[in-house]
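User: Run a structure prediction on this.
Assistant: Running it now.
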Amino acid sequence: MKRIDQLTITRFLSILFVFFYHSGGGIYIQWLNFPPFSHIFGSGPTAVAYLYVLSGFVMSIVYHQPQTKFDVSGYWRTRFIRLYPLYIISFLLVCFYYLEFMARIKPWKVLVNIFILQAWWPPYAQSFNYASWSMTVEIFFYAVFPFFTMWSYRQSTRKLIRLALFFWGLTQLVYFILWKGYFPAWELLLVYNPIFHLNTFIMGVVAGIWYLRESPKRPVPSWVNLSVLLLSLVFILGYTILSNVYRELPHKLQPIAGLLSPVHAILIVALALDKTRLASILRHPWLVTLGETAYALYILHVPVIWLYERALFSSGVSNPEFVLSATYIPLMLAVGLVCYLYIDPPLRRGLKRVMDRILVPLVLMDLVILTVSVYVSFRLRFSEDRTFDSYRQAMLLMFWSAFILRTVASVVVNSAGSLVVKESFRLFVLRTTIAVTLGSVMVAGAVYAGYLAGWIENYPRSIFLLDWVIVLGLSVFTRWLHRRKWAV
């Protein structure tokens, strides 16, 4: 299916509304900071819901192919490679911003962010990069999409539309009953939990299926289609304004759960079908390029503004508030373009090469092993609770160092790749030993650097040998089990 480029710029425009909602408009919207414009500029939650509908629509356009077998694992790999590089960069930038506090942050809070699970755990939904909760939602969509799509192959379009509308209505009913009864006590659950956003994605998926199946058989006159497009846009803007005037209507954060998603779906389909001058303008290469920067802009805007703001206020520049207000959006546009053109593509290619080399189950097992090893090593060495508590910060620093450095060592030495299955027993043990030893040396160096920096009071030398023995033994054992499984 060919690209529908006139939709791409709408991603960028939606991200702009998210910027404005996060107080990133600066001087560029201050002169319009009054109703009804202020209501429209504050519609970031509605823009996020639109992006979810658009995501479902685009997924259908690309992957709804009843004549071919759906490659579920290939789909998940492709989406992960597309999503993760910039996501982890944004996470590392936030870690750098909080560097002096990192050794004291709870491990689970960091882990749910690394594995993009934060929105499932309400207390951590807004931790680190508070905008990244929506990536948990997208991951949930990616998990559901293959199975819904394969099921949809056997369903009529009419049935899918009825299902999407029923699920949307049910979701809205449950959502707003809970909102009225439990907001703000349940705010983190109601706003960020992926379950409440699935209706928007399903609406987009079904809209994409209708576009593929029915639009070729039912040509719509251009003037009718353009009228529908404009009316749906006017409806969205009109509801946004009215709901902020008449507060009895769902407003502000509430539309984030897809209240307007049927209208969003109509708008997207109408724009996809448009063949007027409007579509030609929106397909201009410059506008398409801006649209392609949307993901980088969204996932990076929080850490970039934090670090930029800190740099401005510590630089001694006069009137840093005005400088920030005037330069933030141009800076983000530059960051988005650089990431899209020069940073994201090589990172994705590199991640693809790594994913092609490694066995994901072994890597995940290695993460479990290092977690167990660090805790057990400190417990065996410092059995008394009081002594153990005094080394807790050292244990956390060692854990995070091992989490990164042991994984890097495993990838570099290729001790978690297909060679573990194919090569001789002696070579696989040697490769595993080299990877574990290299990881131990790097972890010991990282913890010593933390000791010199004053992050920890004591340097637990004997721990590293104990940890090396445990990790090596468990790593060889798990790889031997994996070899046995492949040999059967």
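The chain has 22 helices and no strands.
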